Every structure is written in structure tokens, then in C-alpha cells.
């Protein structure tokens, strides 16, 4: 089966057909780097990673970009108006007594460290919004020239009524206001859903980050960065655009509006949205104190692989509930898999278990169905397939699973265990069963199993 993906734009599962079969282009909306990145955010980046790996399994080369938002993401976003409130980066700078640039650099470094610890495929580039200010200004100029903008007191805005397809992704029309609008609307806007392309610096307050533009000194609106970076790095139209489900209604709808109005081309073919990670059945949030980070879970003895396995236990479009118990179950499963692999005997005659590989790939190509793919892993482990072939097949699976299975393949039998087993065989040959039994138990207490075979003994790791 060829790769099929659910497309949030058409709300259907579709065959994946790239614009250029030789190079798939993919963009994932990355973090706003004003604080530590949570395991909620990392769920969305794990979907990006899995998409990348599944595309590679299907033989595609992928050009992959992820942005880092270091300017313009305002606090009003959570209250239904992304053009109001304070710039998150500037706010953290004030709180921590550092410059905006230092704040961004600090959290970027921390993010990338955890990204690597989770073994996520690195994009070709992590693009920082402040490195693309010129590109953003150029794009806004293009929109202005084509008559899609208007200026009000606090900035230059996109006029959503000029774009007939507004609402294709979100389902909202330009004269509606977002469900979440819980703050006073900006009455100068022509339509409630119009959004800022460029915001002017406040008169009464100094900003760390501001730039000159044809419209006045200020900073870019939140949405324009993604459109501009995509245009510069990947071109006018891309294959896959992904992010968390919260971005679908406003941020992604606005990216489409800007990009399609500027270029006159379709922006992205497939929109992939990851459902939120919840905690104990409710919202995860910094203010609630449950926006756990990778170091938080590692401090409790959990491994990055356990978190990855936990993510893969649910389909990316289903909400996933984080509990410590669920993470413990994931860690147990990963450990069991490592232990089993450690007991398998390698052989030069190993072959791929093709039936299992086919089933595994079918699950991947069925809209990245990781729970189904994991089920195939356990079916293989329980099957009659030769141990050496199990190893070969699991290593192939692991190109997508990313659990580091290769580190557990093959094992050295400690000399001490080997000697004990030899002595035991001697006792058995002499019919001294009680002593042989005693040694067997000693070997077991050291974590190994000894089996009697025709030409002597065989040692396995105990699971
Ligand atoms: P932000 O740092 O808020 O700009 O979010 C960065 C990315 O993480 C976006 O794609 C969000 O949609 C996503 N995200 C944020 N919180 C969660 C969550 N609890 N579960 C899954 N994805 C999330
Ligand atoms: Zn974006």
C-alpha cells in the first residue's frame, strides 16, 4: 500500500502524491523559545520525526525545515486574539533580567539538547524568525502591492475579506470571530479575523527587538514568519505542513491566506495536525505546573525511549493522556523488548521476516498508525520466526521506531558464567544432580539461564 495521510485541509485520508517525486518538502511549526519546551510540544515534533522516517522508508528524499519563534508570538494568542498582549520573548527577558536574544538563545540550546536526546531526526535547518526579517518585510510588501493590506493605529493588517478562500482550513469565515475571543476586539480592524502582518513598537515602552520597515518601526506579526521562511527555504508550494492541532484554526489559516495571496499558488498540499497531549485527563500548562519537560521525566528515572514509546502508543490524531503510570507501562515494554533482543542468538543465516515487515509497513502507510506498528512488533516477538531473523527484522523496524534496539543485540557471556556452566555440565555427566542444580540456580541469580543442548549448554540472558 502506498502512503496515505489524513489531510486536515480536505478532512479526508488521501494518497500521498508529492509535487516533485524526487524531493518531498516538509515544514513543522516549532517552539516559541521563551521557556523550556514541554513533553506536549515534543509530541508534535515526534509526529514530524515519524513522518520524516516514514517518507524515507517509502524511498523519498525529504527537505525538512522547522522554525524557532523568537519574536512576535503574543500572549493574546491563548485568549483568542493573537495580535494583542505581550511578546512572549520580551516578557521572559523582563522576568529573567536578560536580553531577548539571550533568552531565545538559552531556550533554543536547551530545546535542541532535548530534541537530540529524544533521537528526533534533525531538520535540514532550524530557522529563527529574527534571521528572516528582510524576507518577512519583502513578503508583506508583496501583499501590500497586491492590495491585501490596510494600516491602523497599531500595525499593518491583512484584510481577510479580500481572500475568497479564507476559512478553507479552519472552517471560519472572515466576518466571524474566533470561538476563543475572550478579550475586547480591536474595533479598528475591518473584520474580526483580520490579523497583523507588522506591528508597531509601543510608544511608551522600549522593546529589545524592533526593526525599521516601510510602515514604521516595529516587529513582524506571528504568522508571517512561517510563510516567509517557507518561501525562502522551500519555495512557493510545499508538500507537507505540520504542527499541533491548536494552530489549525488561526495560525495555519493565516499562513495559507498570506502565502496564497502573495504567490497566487496553492501553499501546502497536506496539512498534518497532532492532537494535544493532556495530563491526568486535563489541560497541560505551565501555570498548572504540569508542563513536564524531558529532564523532569528523566529525573524520575524514565528514559527518552520510554517517552517515545509512550507517544507511539496512540495515533497522532487522537488525544493522548499523560500519566506517570502510562509512562511506566511504556518503559516496561521497552525494557522487555531490549531484554528479549539481548537473549536472541545471532546467525549468518538471518533473513528479514517479510510477512511481518509488510504488515509493519502497511501500518506506517495507513496514516502513520504507530499503535498498529507496535502491535506487529509484539506479534513478531511471539512468533515462530528464527531468533536471528527476529533481530534483523526488529532492526529494520527500528529505522522508524527509533528505540535504539541495536544497542541490545548480541551479548557477551561473562567468563564467570561460562565457567559455572562448564562445571555444572561436569556434575551432570557424573550424575551429581544436586550440585548441578545448585549451580544452575547460582547462574540464574546472576541474571542468566542455562539450557542443555546436544553438544553441551547454551546461555541466555534472563528476561
Ligand atoms: P508553542 O511553543 O506554543 O508555539 O508550540 C509549539 C508547537 O507545539 C506547536 O506546534 C503547538 O501546537 C505544539 N504544542 C503545544 N502544546 C502541545 C501539547 N500539549 N500537545 C501537543 N502539541 C503541543
Ligand atoms: Zn507556523
TrEMBL record:
EC number: 6.1.1.16
Compartment(s) where it occurs, according to its Swiss-Prot or TrEMBL record: Cytoplasm
One GO-annotated biological process of the protein: cysteinyl-tRNA aminoacylation
A Pfam cross-reference name: DALR_2
Matching InterPro entries: Cys-tRNA-ligase (IPR015803), Cys-tRNA-synt_Ia_DALR (IPR015273), Cys-tRNA/MSH_ligase (IPR024909), Rossmann-like_a/b/a_fold (IPR014729), tRNA-synt_1_cat_dom (IPR032678), tRNAsynth_Ia_anticodon-bd (IPR009080)
Protein name, as recorded: Cysteine--tRNA ligase
Catalytic activities: tRNA(Cys) + L-cysteine + ATP = L-cysteinyl-tRNA(Cys) + AMP + diphosphate
Keywords annotated in UniProt: Aminoacyl-tRNA synthetase, ATP-binding, Cytoplasm, Ligase, Metal-binding, Nucleotide-binding, Protein biosynthesis, Zinc
Top-rank taxon: Bacteria
Coiled coil: none
Main location: cytoplasm
Family membership noted in the UniProt record: Belongs to the class-I aminoacyl-tRNA synthetase family.
Domain tRNA synthetases class I catalytic, residue spans: 18-331
Gene Ontology MF, one: cysteine-tRNA ligase activity
Cofactor note as given: Binds 1 zinc ion per subunit.
Cofactor dependence: Zn(2+)
Gene: cysS
Amino acid at each position: 500500500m502506498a502512503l496515505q495521510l489524513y489531510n486536515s485541509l480536505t478532512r479526508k485520508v488521501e494518497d500521498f502524491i508529492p509535487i516533485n517525486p524526487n524531493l518531498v518538502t516538509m515544514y513543522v511549526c516549532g517552539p516559541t523559545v521563551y521557556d523550556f519546551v514541554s513533553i506536549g510540544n515534543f509530541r508534535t515534533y515526534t509526529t514530524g520525526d515519524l513522518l520524516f522516517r516514514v517518507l524515507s522508508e517509502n524511498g523519498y528524499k525529504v527537505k525538512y525545515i522547522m522554525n524557532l519563534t523568537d519574536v512576535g508570538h503574543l500572549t493574546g494568542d491563548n485568549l483568542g486574539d493573537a495580535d494583542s498582549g505581550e511578546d512572549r520573548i520580551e516578557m521572559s527577558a523582563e522576568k529573567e533580567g536578560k536580553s531577548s536574544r539571550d533568552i531565545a538563545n538559552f531556550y533554543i540550546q536547551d530545546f535542541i539538547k532535548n530534541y537530540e536526546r529524544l533521537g528526533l531526526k534533525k531538520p535540514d535547518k532550524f530557522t529563527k524568525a529574527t534571521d528572516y526579517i528582510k524576507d518577512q518585510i519583502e513578503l508583506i510588501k508583496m501583499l501590500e502591492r497586491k492590495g491585501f493590506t490596510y494600516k491602523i493605529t497599531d500595525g499593518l493588517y491583512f484584510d481577510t475579506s479580500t481572500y475568497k478562500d479564507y476559512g478553507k482550513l479552519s472552517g471560519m469565515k472572515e466576518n466571524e470571530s474566533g470561538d476563543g475571543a475572550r478579550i475586547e476586539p480591536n474595533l479598528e480592524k475591518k473584520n474580526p479575523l483580520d490579523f497583523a502582518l507588522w506591528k508597531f513598537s509601543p510608544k511608551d515602552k522600549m522593546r529589545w527587538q524592533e526593526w525599521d520597515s516601510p510602515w514604521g518601526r516595529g516587529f513582524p506579526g506571528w504568522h508571517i514568519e512561517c510563510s516567509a521562511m517557507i518561501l525562502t527555504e522551500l519555495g512557493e508550494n510545499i508538500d507537507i505542513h505540520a504542527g499541533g492541532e491548536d494552530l489549525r484554526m488561526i495560525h495555519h489559516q493565516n499562513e495559507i491566506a498570506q502565502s496564497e495571496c502573495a504567490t497566487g499558488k496553492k501553499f501546502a498540499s497536506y496539512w498534518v495536525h497532532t492532537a494535544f497531549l493532556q495530563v491526568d485527563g486535563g489541560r497541560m500548562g505551565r501555570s498548572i505546573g504540569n508542563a513536564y519537560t524531558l529532564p523532569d521525566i528523566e529525573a524520575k528515572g524514565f528514559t527518552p525511549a520510554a517517552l517515545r514509546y509512550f507517544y507511539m502508543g496512540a495515533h497522532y490524531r487522537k488525544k493522548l493522556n499523560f500519566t506517570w503510570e502510562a509512562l511506566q507501562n511504556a518503559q516496561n515494554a521497552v525494557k522487555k523488548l531490549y531484554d528479549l533482543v539481548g537473549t536472541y542468538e545471532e546467525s549468518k543465516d538471518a533473513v528479514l521476516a517479510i510477512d511481518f515487515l509488510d504488515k509493519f509497513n502497511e501500518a506506517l502507510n495507513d496514516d502513520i498508525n504507530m499503535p498498529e506498528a507496535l502491535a506487529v512488533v509484539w506479534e513478531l516477538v511471539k512468533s515462530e520466526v528464527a531468533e536471528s531473523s527476529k533481530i534483523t527484522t526488529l532492526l529494520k523496524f527500528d529505522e522508524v521506531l527509533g528505540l535504539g534496539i541495536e544497542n541490545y543485540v548480541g551479548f557477551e557471556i561473562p567468563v564467570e558464567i561460562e565457567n559455572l556452566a562448564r562445571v555444572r555440565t561436569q556434575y551432570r555427566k557424573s550424575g551429581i544432580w544436586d550440585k548441578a542444580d545448585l549451580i544452575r540456580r547460582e547462574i540464574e541469580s546472576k541474571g542468566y539461564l542455562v539450557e542443555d543442548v546436544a553438544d553441551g549448554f547454551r546461555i541466555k540472558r534472563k528476561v
